[in-house]
């Protein structure tokens, strides 16, 4: 059984910072790409940032220069450092991982339960 657990969300004023964490646990052989997504009320879930197992990253245009994604492959943990937060960053943030649970088993997509980020103006 694989679990992804996010933490670090909360309420912050515009211009402030938060650091999200996503810890994977359970039966894990390897983790390929990981990513952070977000969903605001009434909107579709969107990709915020992604990172490969080798550390290559990509970001949504709306967060470039403000957010930084990173991962610790030993701890099976991913992070999202969010600086200069804006009210439009308010959303539920979800962790995603393309994960291999055991050798010779195809990778599967796993999701965390989400963590709320609220930015007040």
Characterize the structure shown.
The protein has about 120 residues and is mostly beta strands. The chain contains no helices and 11 strands. The strands form 2 sheets. Strands 2, 4, 5, 6, 9, 10 and 11 form a 7-stranded mixed beta sheet that branches. A hairpin with a 7-residue loop joins strand 9 (about 90-100) and strand 10. It is elongated.
Q: How much helix, percentage-wise, in residues?
A: under 10%
Q: Major sheet, described briefly?
A: 7 strands, mixed
The helix/strand class is mainly beta
Rg value: 14 Å
Report the average pLDDT across residues.
Answer: 97
Q: How are the SSEs ordered, and which strands pair?
A:
Elements: E1 2-7, E2 10-13, E3 18-26, E4 30-39, E5 46-51, E6 57-59, E7 67-72, E8 77-82, E9 91-100, E10 108-111, E11 115-120
Parallel strand pairs: 2-11
Antiparallel strand pairs: 1-3, 3-8, 4-5, 4-9, 5-6, 7-8, 9-10, 9-11
Short description:
By secondary structure, the chain is mostly beta strands.
Key features?
mainly beta; single chain; 11 strands
